[in-house]
Amino acid sequence: xxxxxxxxxxxxxxxxxxxxxxxxxxxxxxxxxxxxxxxxxxxxxxxxxxxxxxxxxxxxxxxxxxxxxxxxxxxxxxxxxxxxxxxxxxxxxxxxx
Length: 97
What we know:
Elements: H1 3-11, H2 13-22, E1 27-28, H3 29-33, H4 41-53, E2 57-62, E3 65-70, H5 72-83, H6 89-96
Antiparallel strand pairs: 1-3, 2-3
């Protein structure tokens, strides 16, 4: 998935919450869904699928469970891209002129 698709995937507040949950470490789909009592397991699965397609998370299988975890390298790429807009003091001066 391209950069725009990755940004679209993190635009949804429920998907961002899933990413925040995964900051703590690997979790199964059931564990993740347990944090969202107001939405169906199928909807959580859909969100996980979109996050996986955007390469924001990875999955690994252990016995009868699938565990999800963050893909830190994609977040590093996003941060590097965003950092280009921070600019230094010289750039701010040029914009004011």
